[in-house]
From TrEMBL, chains A, B, C, D:
Keywords: Hydrolase, Protease. InterPro entries: Papain-like_cys_pep_sf, Transglutaminase-like. The keyword Repeat does not apply. GO terms for molecular function: peptidase activity. It comes from Brevundimonas lenta. Transmembrane segments: none annotated. This is Transglutaminase-like putative cysteine protease.
């Protein structure tokens, strides 16, 4: 798996990359290499909760970052319908935050919709119904949305890309009382391989990964970072304007 | 300090209270008492970062919660202009999340406004300029906003309550590259004493508390909880509809 | 039919009432009486297109307006499915404006939704499908919406009052290429009788009135005014803040 | 003055062009020529109020429309500060509609802002203050806005193009109780010459044209159409998706 990101930082700006494979219990980084041209001394951090890693630096001019990794991502399994939805009382305290609405996921507005549309279902059954609804009602179509598009807007537009599918899925799950969080990943089974946005829901005492676009089997995904929504998991966050020069992701199953 | 919250939970619902005084290093809970009628067995949690405490239970019918505490809240000081704004590289990793936009604080939209209006200032100087701008341009006026009002809307409306002032202050600080988070508190110097929403910014290696309404000296505030915005610090969060029966806060300096 | 509107205009303000029965070909005002206490000299206008009448004055203090009318509203008929949708080329030029999005009806955002949901139908058939969809998906529930609620929000909320049903209906029709406009009316068959917001669509060379709430048979409605959306047909528009003192509508079939 | 618009209508769609010089009393079309390749039989209409002309047809494939005109646009004069703002009672009935909020001009939200910022001024003085505020606070910057951008968003973004400046100007005038409407024009003094969006306000018993961008002297503008906002004056409106092939405007003072 290999990602190349070349961006121009003009004027110079603080930047945060979230592109390294997470140190998540289920996936093992066998080999890893990070090269930047010109050389950059990054500050590297890792969060305890997810094993997500961030690289920070003050960047200037054109910077080409190449990241390569060989990963054994274990044996993720799809979400079974029989998982159990927890009362809020039975959730770990640190999971509660993923019930709250966020920048792109105004779940507070969708209570009536989920009750009317998915009423009578809970847990994995509810999530599967939500995923089915999304697949039936939202078209995968680049160019409809942009980086400001919220789940409310995608709900109206009926189209978007993986980021939008994920925001809508998270929104409908949280509105259903199910903790949900955004996950960034490498998807080697996309054509071509690419960064991918999917999400996780907390059911039966664990996080389960689902892909609302249905484009990439979760078994093949390699986790990078997680957060409330795209605001937290962007692969590149900067303070000022930056310009894409070139970007590519390649990956293959070994 | 004494808070009484009586709400009707009909139909029964999961509920989370965030009303206890935080175990924050700067403030000491000398005495404390929590009574509910009828009796409720709460699950109680405390987060490491802020010392915020949550009470969770499945509630039904009318529940009257009374919380009393005697607190020594130390000696908080106002924000000095000479504090230093950090490059992102110099921020603790756990502070980075408070740079991101959130449900009610779309700081991603305000970059040009803060550059034009507060350009040439950084750090505490920038924050003081932001607070001054808010005081000059926003009226404290109940009834203009509701629980869905975002900082974007308050920026247009030019009026709101403490929650709205706080969201706008957070938004303008984050847009300025300064980490900012919402804080709930007891304000015994408000007339009458009440819950209050204020915010903290990270400067010179620490969190500084500011009150964008200017209504309550920060020296007299007693911290309860913190989060990205009002979605995280509501004193009562429920899954279904609930109805306020009665609510009061009393407090006095000892 | 009798309407009493008592409002307090404090501070004094310009005001426009749209509460008189329209001089629409299909309905005949047999008797009519307008009384204000204190006396107000209104400027009265009538538009050519709809026969809508406006009353204008500069008002001050409490003003009680009573309007009584006896109306023969002819024999309106419900919308048949066999009506024909026109190409834009075949529309009268003055009807084109009702294809455009307006303040509360952002029809430009709903093109993909109407294509997916009502694709394969046109004309009266399409409109009937839209009305059926609204009845199945939107609850009539006061308190969910306010005077700023747009059709986009109602589409998410899945609830509202007659104004919201009408905005959503107009939005989905315009997005379908069918001219649609908002109409205010007296509905003597509502319980209790009240002002009502419904809408008209242009099909088979004429305007057809429909009630998306299904609460009042169109046969019993008495037209007042028409416009792009609620911004144009409010029964009272003022420049400053005003306060409702009392308002009532009574009506009976003679 | 010469405009060439080449668009691809695929799939075929109804289309409305508003690109001909208006038959407005103040401007005289000396010569005029319209050519389409391939040939199109347009339905042509002209409205009484403004003299705006619309061309309608069902179009298919690539259509190149060329419009040439020689116009004597009389002697428009800039807005003097001494113009008088009318009470609503003194406005012609047909002007009232331009007090209402519209799709891109939510003037209902800006009452407090205009009172605080422009309080104490009325009429031409108020409008000049509004134009000055816009010039000081909004940057002319292509790429920030798109066809969905409202005045609310431009007020936050602090940047946009002529369409956005016009929407914001209209919004602030209507919020001030001054009728305002959007106007499309040819601006031969822009570099390069282009379609331009400006607006008119009703003061001292007449419409006055102003350019909130300050880029083109109103004396040189040639009126095309008018309406509530961009939804009404687009030079090309279609039912389906269309694709720009080529577009150019050339103009010179004779």
């Amino acid at each position: 798996m290999r990602a190349n990101l070349t961006w121009r930082f003009e004027p110079p700006t603080d930047a945060i990359y979230k592109i390294q494979v997470a140190h998540w219990p289920g996936q093992h980084v066998l080999e890893e290499r990070l090269v930047t041209v010109p050389h950059v001394d990054f500050i590297e951090n890792e969060d305890d909760e997810f094993g997500a890693r961030t690289l920070r630096a003050h960047l200037s001019g054109e910077v080409a970052l190449t990241y390569e990794a060989v990963v054994d991502n274990g044996s993720l399994k799809g979400l079974p319908a029989v998982t159990v939805q927890h009362d809020w009382n039975d959730l770990p305290a640190e999971v509660l935050t993923y019930l709250n609405p966020s920048r792109y996921c105004p779940s507070d507005q969708f209570g009536r919709f989920v009750d009317r549309t998915f009423g009578g279902t809970t847990g994995g059954d509810r999530v599967l119904k939500i995923l089915e609804w999304i697949r039936e009602n939202i078209e995968y179509e680049p160019g409809v949305s942009d980086t400001e598009t919220t789940a409310s807007r995608t709900f109206i537009d009926r189209a978007g890309v993986c980021r939008d599918f994920t925001h809508l899925g998270i929104t409908l799950c949280r509105a259903s009382g199910i903790p949900a969080r955004a996950v960034s990943a490498y998807a080697h089974q996309l054509t071509p391989p690419d960064f991918h946005a999917i999400f996780e829901i907390w059911l039966s005492n664990g996080w389960w990964l689902v892909d609302p676009t249905g484009l990439a089997p979760v078994e093949g995904l390699v986790r990078i970072a997680c957060g409330r929504d795209a605001a937290d998991i962007a692969f590149l966050t900067t303070q000022g304007d930056v310009r894409l020069v070139r970007q590519s992701v390649t990956a293959e199953a070994v």
